Amino acid sequence: MWRARLALGLVASLAACGSSDPPVWTHLADGHDPATNERLESEEGARVARAAGWYEWRPNAAVFSPLPTFERVLETQRPFAPEGLDADGRADEFWVAGRAWPLFDGEAFLAASDPRAFLREERERLGDSGAYFAAGDKLLVLLGSDSRLEDVVYRTSFDRGQRLDGRWQTALGRYGGEGLSVLPGERARTRFAAPAEAKLRFATVARGGRGGEVVFSVTQNGVELFRHVETPALPPRVARHTLAVQPGELIFAVTGSPAQTAFLNPIVGPRDVGTYRERPWGADRPDLVVFLADTFRADNLAAYGGEGLETPHLARSLAEAQLFERAWSPSSWTLPAHASLFTGLFPFQHGAISHGTALSAEAVTLAEHLAAAGYRAGAVTDAGYVTRAAGLAQGFEWFDESWGTLDDSLAQARAFLDADDGRPVFLFLQTYRTHTPYEVDEGQRAELSQRLDLSQPFAAVQAAVFEGGGWDPVRDPAAHNPDDLARYRALYRASVAGLDAGWNAFQRDLTSRGLLDSGTLLFTSDHGEALWENQRIGHGNSVFQPIVHVPFALFGHGIEPGRTTFGVSLVDVPKTFSALAGLAPDPQWLGRDVLALDADVPLFAWENNHRDQPSSRARLSGTRKWIFEQETDVLELAYDLGVDPEETDDLSAAEWARTGAPPALDELELLEAPRIGAGRADFGPEAEARLRELGYLGED
To answer: Is pLDDT of 435 > 90?
Structure first.
């Protein structure tokens, strides 16, 4: 939830620039509501019910083609796939030809061994009625015996966004953030008061699957300042633009084929913004960047006790960083850990702890806090649980979630940085490069195969290590083939090498821009990965060290290289970054500023098992670690990590473990009291299918 908002824009303070006019940034999404958009004549007879959130158009023979050998069956590309499928996969869309037509079972059609027989059966069942079948970007229509194509109307619903504290937020597929929701056949009017010499910076996004073109335009005082022609696509196409404008009214319009379209991040700011290294108005607040390597073990790095063979670039970087040796994640898997990193709250306090839960709007996120102070907050993620559906986009004016490669993510991060408008940046980049399924490209295979067994693909190795090729590991140690486990570890290490190369490219880019001259970069992970230590594989299944011990290193201006032995947690990130930005922390946050530590404190972690299996929680004080069952409060295990870092000698019967257990348990339970309500997440069938590929939502 936004805590502060300036009416016209965010004003940066001056520092040694000698000017009496501070730069001003005006967010044109303030006050926008698509329900007030004006209608234009559509080229294809499409119309939009703005407030109701649906799009309607009349197809014609030019965009439909007969399905061979089937009478009165036509197919076309859909204008765009609807969002908000219900639990049965039914979309809020329907065909109307004097009466509503039913949706027939698409899955049955796809699985039918004889599609012709299936369609004949459907025709017999429906009689003279019409029906439709939507699958991905295709639309199949069975015309009724008394129906004509020109009588058919196609209507699809979608979410045009919502207003959060006066600013419109919208999303088109992978891209989301603040913006103007303007569909083909609409125009939106905005006004701003800013210095005479200003620039408008924004992105156009077009999402659709039926072809055709859309035309984006911006007009001022009757003069068309901007015109851009785009072909909508799935995934959506995005382009960034900059143009000079004068104070007054701007008209944003879109014409052309049915599609989802928007102007994202329309912000008017200074014409000359300099560079990240030097601003015309002097230094303001530092740029802040997080590189989060999902599922990255701390001991992938020599600095954390590992061999470090796959991480030479990170090793060189860590020599120039403040490295925190004892860093813990508060959870064993992605969603709770990210929510804690963004909110400074422990998992049960924020409630985003299982599939179907989300971070609620009651939370105050780091991105919201920084944005309210004038930061341009952007996120590039590999989707999964780091998504808008999970509530993790709160505060980001640009949020890009996509199932892609690390190279794709780095390109998107560069594009965000290229769109510099002079404000300090908060950039969050998350990658699944070291998450299952471990990917090895041919170049890596050739380079690493001399010391790593990469002879088999991940699917084959997974089938040998996990029960039935699923995600439940074989529990009997005697049933494991050491060679299979070695291949599994080798594939993980190869993915680590790929991450290291991507990190090198990312840090070099930040350095070349001068972004770290006065800014700060954090390298960390949300959790690690068990590779058969303590008879565990993967994550989300324990609170042993390979999973909860994460790297935590800060680079940048004013940060002295060195090592810190005080314990730190991901919940410390909001207060740390807030202090770096010169801001007071939000009172809702826990955690500490890790650059101002003067004493050690206990660390805490929760398994938050996402497979509805028994779960554990842990407390670490110094080198002593207690692990309790979540449901029964029974002390399961205890270790002294100072002498037993691999957690092989259970000391739960030792006097220190028994006497220390009650206060340790009291602290854990105190931190499990909810501070905000949990939100609800609807990921949709496509996202859930991808989550299964990552090892979540498996057969339990």
So the answer is: yes
Q: How far is 194 from 172, CA to CA, in rounded Å?
A: 29
C-beta of residue 32 within 8 angstroms of C-beta of residue 38 = no
Helix (H, G, I), strand (E, B) or coil at 270: strand
Which of the pair, 224 or 149, is modelled with greater confidence?
224
> Which one is predicted more confidently, 465 or 309?
309
Pull the structure tokens for residue 184: 């083909």
Strands (E), 20-121: 24-27, 38-39, 47-49, 54-57, 65-66, 73-77, 93-96
| pLDDT tens for each residue of 267-318 | 999 999 999 999 999 878 999 999 999 999 999 999 999 999 999 999 999 9
Cα 99–Cα 210–Cα 50 angle in degrees, nearest 5:
60
Q: How far apart are CA 187 and CA 115, in angstroms?
A: 44
Q: Model confidence at 392, in pLDDT bands (50, 70, 90)?
A: very high
Residue whose C-alpha is closest to residue 78's, from 62, 92, 59, 96: 59
Average of per-residue pLDDT across 350-364: 96
3-state secondary structure of 177: strand
Gyration radius of the chain over CA positions? 27
How confident is residue 108, by pLDDT bands cut at 50, 70 and 90? Answer: low
278 or 65: which leads in pLDDT: 278
DSSP output for 403-454: S--HHHHHHHHHHHHHT--SS-EEEEEEE-TTSSSP---HHHHHHHTTTS--
CA distance 502 to 553: 17
Report the DSSP beta bridge partners of residue 679: 358
Given strand 153-157, what is the order of strands in its sheet?
A: 47-49, 54-57, 153-157, 93-96
Here the tokens at position 253 are 């319009």
What CA–CA distances, in Å, run from 482 to 52, 203, 461, 695? 59, 52, 12, 22
Element (H, E) at 251: strand 248-256
Give every CB contact of residue 130 below 8 A, 6+ residues apart in sequence.
95, 97, 101, 141, 142, 143, 144, 147, 152
